[in-house]
Automatic annotation (TrEMBL):
Keywords: Cell outer membrane, Membrane, Receptor, Signal, TonB box. This is TonB-dependent receptor. It comes from Pseudoalteromonas gelatinilytica. InterPro entries: Beta-barrel_TonB, Beta-barrel_TonB_sf, Plug_dom, Plug_dom_sf. Belongs to the TonB-dependent receptor family. The gene is cirA.
Length: 766
């Protein structure tokens, strides 16, 4: 597979070079197109753009991120306001706008919806290589002409098109990790005039690697119950290595052409493939500090656990649009198809070393996921007077998601006379021959059809602009448990009004305000009609096909001020009133483990609210005669409230705050630059039935140094320079009553950390 990827990349780069020589260098298009040198050899520092959208929108171009050489869209988003992550160290997958679960954030690619792996309907932004990005739009409030399932907001990742680049560039380099591992990074992009339109081709091959060290201390009780828990209640210690190793390969293309009659046609495609291995090896000891791996009496080792996962993910989407004058206005038709496929094989082998003969316990799992969506959109715009536009249209989407999870387990006894003999025996030779069975609730098919219609009126002038709109969304879904042969339907519809206004209070300052209704659709695994035994502690979990979406009325109020030609500072206050929260409720029925256990089920129950203050600043220091110095700062205070079975809390895993601060210093006379950025996010607390977790992240520091020549840039980047750690505290309980009474099953302290990563990247423009 890796050989195929390499050949695909080389072929794509060769195609870029062929197109470069096949086309004339002159650009006859009316739209201004950036030449390749502007992207590779910078003349100016990139700042936040001042968006002209009426919905409150922050816009960051690719130049804003690139000097810190982010690998993925997720890495890039670490520098923007209000986006947090709950990922492992060195990773940024599920973007959490306003600190809320990724399920509350809508991720779009070029304004279009894309399926992802998450059962909560989220899309992991580390699936998109940063090299493909033209700009990122943070859309804080919903509008009638976009899908409204975005309670926290929308992240629109806009990829480069033919008008993004005239000419091309190649990138080559590598990354070095603190354990000495080296990973490659290659990319090529080319944009040109072609057949009367604009063509862009791109390819990217990125080695991905993440070596982490974990340690856990487990106790039978917590400090809140026992001040001497560390000595009296100690259970075991676990030391673990966790290494993620893989490659991302992507290809993208776009073509756009304008015709003499005023019509336009565009088509774009992206393909991303990931091959990844996750290898974990852990040892549990009966002592807080000692390490004695002896398998004879007196040894400290209790268990040896090996867990390896092989992951293959492929997602692609193709979108085309045709715009033409029609009925006194302009109509645009869009047709799109998107696919996400995932195949995972996981094997876990655990060995009880406390006595002979040793017992090998193995668990295996295979996961195959196939999620496909097609969509058709129509949007018509009419000019009603000098400053008004009327827009209306329809959106149709069909979705099919097939999930197949199979599991197997077994035991095998092995006798060893020495530790060396044990170490020399591969776990794969432990003698397993397990039969796979379908996991409860794990083999199902979801079919979901949407029909949305919308209409809005927009007024824009120099000082005062506004927009009023409404969207009506209908959803019909059927989910089938293929093991039990049971199907369930779930249909719902929503009216979703929105209103935005913008008022220029001065030449440089403007006020914006928005009110909008939005929603969050239920998780796939919550609506599966299946009973899962011992899923939440010792409690059973029963799906609920009748779940309705959560809905929210939201408000945003902001002020933005232009600083000189390039700088901008903004302040925004937001509030979300969320209804029909989906929470785990007790059915009152006894669970499979007998007295004290229950069957639990997700239900629409209760309300919640989310609020916060967001400040962002990006500006050159021209006012103090330092035009070649750019500074960046954003801070978000985040809060929320929701009631569950155990009392009041914030929305699960919402950080208290997140902030970024940094600078870039350009040295024009030397053709060089350097800069740094520092990021920190606050603690996050989450609570579900059976488990409570508090997460603390260390700070992250990144620096870069670059040297520029006529067509070449060489950049050295260091990230995670503070050896950031992720520290978690787990409270674990067997039953609901135990959780209420604080009768712990286990109290765990876990810490995970990784070392610095050094990148060296060379870019050549042609």
């Amino acid at each position: 597979m890796k050989q195929f990827k390499t050949k695909a990349l080389v072929s794509a780069l060769a195609l870029c070079q062929f197109a470069a020589y096949a086309q004339d260098e002159q650009n006859s298009d009316e739209k201004k197109v950036k030449v390749s040198e502007e992207l590779v050899v910078y003349g100016e520092i990139g700042y936040r753009n001042r968006s002209q959208e009426l919905a409150p929108t922050l816009e960051y171009s690719q130049e804003y991120f690139q000097r810190f050489e982010p690998l993925t869209a997720g890495d890039a988003l670490k520098r923007v306001p209000s986006v947090t992550f709950l990922s492992d160290v060195l990773e940024s997958d599920g973007a959490r706008m306003r600190g809320l679960s990724p399920a509350y954030t809508k991720v779009l690619i070029n304004g279009e919806e894309v399926p992802g792996a998450g059962a909560d309907r989220s899309f992991f932004v580390d699936r998109i290589p940063a090299e493909l990005i033209e700009r990122v739009e943070i859309i804080r409030a919903s509008s009638a002409n976009r899908s409204a399932d975005a309670i926290a907001g929308t992240l629109n990742i806009v990829l480069r098109d033919g008008y993004s680049l005239d000419g091309g560039y190649l990138r080559a380099g590598g990354l070095r990790y603190d354990d000495g591992e080296l990973k490659e990074s290659f990319a090529g992009v080319y944009g040109t005039e072609f057949a009367g339109g604009r063509l862009l081709l791109g390819a990217n091959l990125q080695g991905r690697y993440n070596p982490k060290q974990k340690s856990s201390l487990r106790y039978g009780d917590s400090p809140e119950n026992n001040a001497n828990y560390k000595t009296e209640e100690f259970d075991n210690r676990e030391d673990q290595t966790d290494t993620r190793d893989g490659d991302d390969t992507s290809l993208n293309a776009s073509y756009e052409i304008a015709f003499d009659n005023g019509s336009k046609f565009d088509i774009s495609a992206i393909w991303v493939d990931t091959d990844r291995t996750e290898d974990e090896r852990s040892f549990e000891y009966d002592d807080p500090t000692a390490i004695n791996n002896s398998i004879v009496e007196g040894g400290n080792l209790e268990t040896d656990n090996a867990n390896v996962s092989y992951i293959d993910q492929t997602n692609y989407n193709i979108n085309s649009g045709y715009e033409l004058p029609l009925f006194g206005g302009t109509s645009k038709f869009k047709l799109g198809f998107a696919s996400f496929e995932e195949s995972v094989y996981e094997q876990e082998v655990e060995i009880d070393t406390s006595e002979l003969p040793m017992v090998f316990e193995e668990e295996e799992e295979t996961v195959d996921l196939d999620d496909k969506e097609w969509s058709l959109q129509w949007q018509h715009s009419l000019f009603a007077g000098e400053n008004k536009t009327i827009q209306f249209g329809a959106f149709v989407q069909g979705k099919e998601r097939d999930t197949a999870v199979y599991q197997a387990e077994g035991e095998s006894e092995q006798s060893f006379t020495s530790w060396d003999q044990f170490n020399q025996t591969p776990m794969s030779l432990a003698g397993f021959n397990n039969e796979f069975e379908a996991a409860a609730g794990g083999v199902n098919k979801l079919e979901e059809d949407r029909l949305d219609v919308f209409a809005l009126v927009k007024h824009e002038d120099q000082d005062f602009s506004w927009e009023l709109g409404v969207r009506y969304e209908t959803t019909d879904s059927t989910i089938t448990d293929k093991v039990e042969g049971v199907s369930a339907k779930n249909d719902y519809d929503f009216f979703l009004p929105s209103a935005h206004l913008r008022y220029n209070v001065s030449e440089n300052g403007r006020v914006s305000a928005s009110v909008a209704r939005s929603l969050r659709r239920p998780d796939f695994d919550y609506i599966t009609p299946a009973l899962l035994e011992k899923e939440l502690g010792d409690n059973d979990f029963l799906g609920n096909p009748d779940l309705q979406p959560e809905s929210s009325w939201g408000m945003d109020l902001g002020y933005e001020y232009r600083l000189g030609k390039s700088g901008v500072v903004g302040l925004n206050v937001f509030y979300r009133d969320v209804s029909d929260l989906i929470e785990i409720a007790n059915t009152g029925q006894q669970g499979s483990e007998g007295d004290g256990t229950y069957i639990l089920q997700p239900r629409n129950t209760g309300d919640g609210n989310v609020k916060g203050i967001e400040l962002d600043l990006s500006t050159p220091l021209s006012a103090i005669s330092m035009p070649n110095t750019g500074v960046f700062f954003n801070y978000s205070w985040l809060d929320s409230e929701v009631d569950d079975t155990f009392g009041s809390r914030k929305f699960n895993d919402q950080s208290d705050y997140v902030f970024n601060v940094g600078f870039i210093q350009d040295l024009p006379d030397l053709g060089a630059s350097f800069g740094a950025t520092y990021r920190k996010q606050g603690d996050a607390y989450g609570r579900i039935v059976g488990e409570e977790v508090t997460t603390h992240y260390g700070a992250d520091l990144e620096v870069f140094v670059e040297k520029r020549w006529q067509d070449v840039t060489l950049r050295l980047v260091g990230s995670n320079l503070l050896d950031a750690s992720k520290d978690e505290t787990f409270n674990k309980f067997d039953t609901v009553d135990d959780q209420i009474n604080r009768d712990f099953d286990e109290y765990e302290l876990e810490s995970e950390e990784a070392g610095p990563v050094i990148q060296l990247m060379l870019r050549y423009a042609f």
